[in-house]
Structures are given as C-alpha cells and as structure tokens.
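Predict both folds.
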Amino acid sequence: MKLIREEIESVEFIVEERNGKKSLYIEGIFLQGDIKNRNGRLYEMATLRKEVQRYNESNIVTGRALGELGHPDGPTVNLDRVSHKIVSLKENGNNFIGKAKILSTPMGQIASSLIGEGVKLGVSSRGIGSLIQRDGVNVVGNDFMLSTAADIVADPSAPDAFVEGIMEGKDWVWDGGILREAAARRTYKQINTLVDQKQLAEHKAQLFENFLNNL
C-alpha cells in the first residue's frame, strides 16, 4: 500500500466562545470524491463514503481523530506533533466537510500563533491504499484507509517535493497491527532468521547496505 496525501487550500479559521472560553477551529473541505485532483488521483465516492464512516465511528466519535502540524513522513500519527483534533467530517455533495479544534499542545500553540499572524495555512489528508491505473488516472483502491482526515500544512499549493517523492513512493505493510515501511520490515525479518550470532555478525553490514539501497 502507498502513503497517499492530498492538500486542500480552501479552509476557514473560526473562533467559537463557550462559557467565556474561546476556541479556535479550522473548517472546510477535507476530502473530495469523483474528481481528478491536481495529483492525478481520483477517489470514488463509494470508497470515501465507506472509509469516512469507519473513521467517524472509530476515531471521531471516540475522540481519537488527531492531526499534526506539518508534513509527517509516514502514515502514523505522532503524538508529540499533534496540533488539533477533528470533531466532525460530513458528506456534502462530492465533498466531505471537516471541522477540527486547535489544541493547546506545543504544536497547536504554534498553529494558533501562525494563524494569528495571518500565515496562509491549509489541510492535507493522509492515508494508505493501493492505486489502480484507469484511463490515465490513478484511482485510489477500495482498501484506502485514513490515518488522519487533516494535517495542518503551510503553502499547500506547493507540497514538499522531497517528501512526495521519497515517502509516497514507498510501500507500507501491516505487521502485527503496526504499519511498517516494507523495506524496514524485510530487513527485520532477515535479521531474525539469522539465529546464529556468527551469521548475524557476517551479514549485518550487507543487510544495512541493502536497507539503505531500498530507501
């Protein structure tokens, strides 16, 4: 499965006050279906609808729908970089409108400061899935799974080409309930088959070289 990210620019930042306490939210289109996006990918609405339902039930309802500030290098949500919590994600035509609350975490405070200074920010969905070539379009397979409906990113109209080329080009696999990068998993398995310490000593340099060549 591939790491798949999509950037959206048209989000709004709103302040809501409840019981004298002000909270900052981002709100707008988080996901789009049945349209070829600028990355040449297309998400069928049936695929998004099924996955959003799962994401709502397992993450949003349970308060575990978190997002990060910046472009993470893999599908896992890193708690030390969490900046916001997604509180709703609803279908509207071919779009899914999301709303997320900026948290008082260190990254959330940075996001709040950037917004307060007028920095243009957007959101980027992140997930894993297969890609199927169909009439010159990369159609996202029905195995698509969201890691987060929205990370907060700067200048979403110009995504980081290095991360795009390196991280999205890798394959990710499930290993005991944990998502691992395939090359790392292969190396891990090879090492664990070398039960003899002499074999391990003889092969570890070559294994490390092979791992680097797969990056």
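Second protein follows, with its predicted structure tokens after the sequence.
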Amino acid sequence: MTHQPVTTVILIRHGERDDLQPADPDFSDPHLNEAGQARAQHLIHVVGQSGIKAIYTSSFVRTQEMADPLAQHLGLSTIQKDDAPEIKHNILSQHIGQTVLIIGHSNSVPELIMQLGGEDVPVIGEKEFDNLFIVTVFGSEKVSVTKLKYGDQSSSVATE
C-alpha cells in the first residue's frame, strides 16, 4: 500500500462588501466594507499558522482584498483563477500534500467543495460571510469536509 499525501483545502467566502447597486454599472465589483476588512484581518489569527502554501482568489476585488492581509503576513502572492475545475486541477497537481486557501463567493465555494469530492455541498446565504470549510483530500478516493465558523457572526444567521 502506497502512502498518498494529504492535501488540505481551506475555503471561505470573501468578507462583507459594500452593498451591491445594480443600477450603477461602475459598482459591479464592490470593495470590502469595514466589517469585511476586519474579517480579513481576523483571518490572520484564524489560519495564519496553518501552514498555507498558496492562496487562490477570484478576479473580483473583494476576494483579493480579503486575501491581502494574510498573503502579506505569510509572504505569499495570490493566484487569481475563476474556473473551479482549473482550480481543482492546479491544487491537486501543484500543491499535493500542502495546505491551500481558496477565497471565493457564495456560489463558487460550494462548487469547489463538490469539485474536490465533497458530497454534502453547503448552500451559502447572500448575507453569510462567517463560514470556513476544510476539505481534506486523502489521495484520490477519500475526502472529508469540516464546516466551521470564524469571526463575527453573520447577520443572516438566526440567533436562538
């Protein structure tokens, strides 16, 4: 039996952003707001010592702003890619056995979890920014998905 290296993929959605204003064509790529910037700083505390070797973002400014504080802390450059199958291929060919962070969106994070082999694919609400998923890829056959929360609670989460 050969030992397959374990690859750990941490996935989050970008932090809180300025409200979208569909009537304004210049506002299709909003920046993080103050809460989102604070969440980006908090990410250093949450995953800054987890051994991340690569950080993937989308081409949208809010994912890049989310990544910047951690990338600077770790001395890494971010990798911009939008295509989920391409991201999966890159991770499982170039970062095998490493820990990688992906900062995506409410639609791309579940798609990437599915691409990596996760079966219980989450639905992320429009106002949810505090989810953190850890996908552990054990070779080509077994995948484990762990769902956590980080930072301040998102406003859409019901309090009971």
